[in-house]
Specification:
single chain; 295 residues; alpha/beta; seven-stranded mixed beta sheet; globular; MBL fold metallo-hydrolase; Metallo-B-lactamas
């Protein structure tokens, strides 16, 4: 299995010389099984470059799994070139949206309106199929098994575990570790703490022992208090999760769009320094556009 990063930036694309090393495209990750099955995690602007790389491999069968429907994770989908070419097959997987009462199909149908894009959904030439997922129910993609896991974000966000040939990858999409809304001396604190402990344990069980963990690491611990409740993690929370689940390698992603390459490396080094590696601890990396991981 191979993992390749096509977009690692959070919130909004941020191209330019300040982000040239790690990249300015929003989230998109390619997972290839040894048998060649194509799994794509999120459709941020990075998916456009991935699409261009697929043009020499027609016909394409692509299985796209969306963590959630916020713009930085879907805005590249209308530019995924294989959807315009007959003979290709694209299966788009994602969560039911309790706000609109719609399945994952609404992600494309909203974007592919003349108000926002010059081509309507009915004009697409590929065989496009929508699969709305249930939490914890695995999907088989060729030789891989993909399991959606409910994480914590202001909208339904599914993390995905991909298992194939004895190796595993987990991608959080956007995730803020649960925190107690009550003060310790308030009624309801203990009950709420028990609930979030249960949710945390369920997430950790789903991620346990992965070879590669890719996590939302948007903020520093200093930045986090002003962004609390926005649904994103920190470098420190990512390291703590990786240690707790005994992941082998951690890749921090969803880089804050205002952070330059130099700033990114600086804050990452500061965070890692707070957690001296012990035997059995993961290795820590920054995700970077173009980086390929072989498992």
């Amino acid at each position: 299995m191979k993992v390749r990063f096509w977009g690692v930036r959070g919130s909004i694309p941020s191209p330019g010389p300040r982000t040239a090393k790690y990249g300015g495209n929003t989230t998109c990750i390619e997972v290839r099984t040894g048998a060649g099955d194509l799994i794509i995690l999120d459709g941020g602007t990075g998916i456009f470059a991935l699409a261009q790389s697929l043009m020499s491999q027609m016909p394409v069968t692509a299985h796209i799994f969306l963590t959630h429907s916020h713009w930085d994770h879907i805005q590249g989908l209308p530019f995924f070139t294989p959807i315009f070419i007959p003979g290709n097959r694209v299966r788009l997987h994602g969560a039911f949206d309790p706000v609109t009462g719609q399945g994952v199909e609404q992600v494309m149908r909203v974007q592919l309106q003349y108000s926002y894009f010059p081509v309507r959904e009915v004009e697409l030439k590929a065989d496009l199929e929508y699969v709305t997922l249930a939490f914890g129910e695995s999907v088989t993609v060729g030789s891989a098994v993909v399991t959606p896991v409910l994480l914590n974000h202001p909208v339904i966000n599914l993390g995905y575990r991909v298992d194939c040939d004895g190796k595993s990858v987990f991608f959080t999409g956007d995730h803020e570790p649960h925190y107690n809304l009550y003060e310790p001396d308030e009624d309801g604190y203990a009950e709420y703490q028990a609930l979030i402990d249960e949710q945390r344990d369920a997430i950790y069980a789903a991620i346990a022992g992965v070879d590669v963990l890719i996590t939302d690491s948007s903020y520093t611990v200093e930045e986090y208090p002003a962004k609390k409740g926005w649904g994103h993690g920190t470098f420190d929370s990512s390291i703590q999760i990786a240690q707790a689940v005994r992941a082998k390698r951690l890749y921090c992603t969803h880089h804050e769009p205002t952070r330059s390459d130099d700033d990114l490396e600086s804050v990452f080094a500061d965070a890692v320094a707070r957690y001296p590696r012990k035997p059995g601890d993961p290795e820590y990396f920054l995700a970077r556009e173009g980086l390929e991981i072989a498992l």
